[in-house]
Amino acid sequence: MKTIATLIYPDVMSLDVTGPLQVFASANVECERQGVRPHYQLRVLGEKIGPVATSAGIQFIAELAWRDVDPRSLDTLLIPGGIGQQAQCRNHPLLTWLNDAEPHIRRLGSVCSGALILSAAGLLDGLRATTHWSDMDELARNTKIHVDTDCLHTYRPEANDGSHHLFTSAGVTAGIDLSLALVEADLGRPMALAVARRLVMFLRRPGGQAQFSALLLPDANRTPRLLTLLEWMALNLSADLSLDTLAERMHLSPRSLSRLFLKELGIAPGQYVERLRLEAARALLQDSGASISTIARLSGFRHPENLRRTFQKHFAVSPHDYAARFA
């Protein structure tokens, strides 16, 4: 059995702990349903044995003290986030233990702002990493890290760049996506699909998918003119949303508009348009009952093949299969 352990500490985010662990627990249930032995043993590690209060006010029980654990007994260790991570970034005994343990653990990863703990330990230096979007700037203060601002997780089992061993994930539910990817690497895609179905989840959001919907991009720093344009775009998805057309509407040059998008949204206008149309197509596939051809037209993709290619690129599934599962 592979031992999957998670760290807990005062004011840890409860979902960062329970979400990923439930994926592995559900994999064990699926193993038993298929007549094979459970594959995972789950462990919760704390500063010391006993109850630990989470940021939700409920308590988890640490069954082992991390300082007493032989790292070679762990297959995978996950470091969750939460408002208590700041204190753990200054917890020098923990950071030292993580450094000493890292070479002996097959997979070491983080959920949400847990990446900041790995960063404080120096374990992400030279690697590509991500975290919750609100903590990106803090993670980027470590200039030795290649921060990816727009992905769900950085785990790639087939890669030779260290991402099969050390990896990070974005906020809360991205830890579940990461855990599904770990189960898929261990037990195959059919098992990961069975777990996702049991948890009523969409399998599987690729690690490189955007962290949040284009319709929900933070707007605190948007200029009023850009906000007006974004609102117009959302209401006119089937219109010509080319860079030249948008620039003319804003009375800017295409180059100036591109710079504005990159500054305030972090992506190019064309990428934003694609995401906006993709979100609309997803909503129509789930709720409208319309044909794929009609959805492609209404969401601005014009032709079903354009919709299919974009869906496959972002979600690794066809629009038809997505509708069959969620409509």
Describe the protein's architecture and organization.
The longest helix is centred in the N-terminal third of the chain and has 20 residues, at 14-33. The two termini are 38 Å apart. The protein is α/β, with parallel strands linked by helices and 327 residues long. Strand 1 (2-7), helix 1 and strand 2 form a beta-alpha-beta unit. Helix content is 45%, strand content 11%. The strands form 3 sheets. It has a 6-stranded parallel β-sheet. The chain has a two-stranded antiparallel ribbon with strand order 3-4. The protein has helices spanning 14-33, 85-88, 92-101, 114-120, 136-140, 173-187, 189-198, 224-235, 243-250, 254-264, 269-287, 292-298, 304-315, 319-326; strands at 2-7, 40-46, 50-53, 59-62, 64-65, 76-79, 107-110, 128-129, 146-147, 166-167. It contains 14 helices and 10 strands. It folds into 2 domains: 2-198, Rossmann fold (3-Layer(aba) Sandwich), CATH 3.40.50.880; 214-326, Homeodomain-like (Arc Repressor Mutant, subunit A). The radius of gyration is 22 Å and the shape is globular. Helix 1 (14-33) packs across helix 7 (189-198).
Task: Outline the secondary-structure elements.
Layout: E1 2-7, H1 14-33, E2 40-46, E3 50-53, E4 59-62, E5 64-65, E6 76-79, H2 85-88, H3 92-101, E7 107-110, H4 114-120, E8 128-129, H5 136-140, E9 146-147, E10 166-167, H6 173-187, H7 189-198, H8 224-235, H9 243-250, H10 254-264, H11 269-287, H12 292-298, H13 304-315, H14 319-326
Parallel strand pairs: 1-2, 1-6, 2-5, 6-7, 7-10, 8-9
Antiparallel strand pairs: 3-4
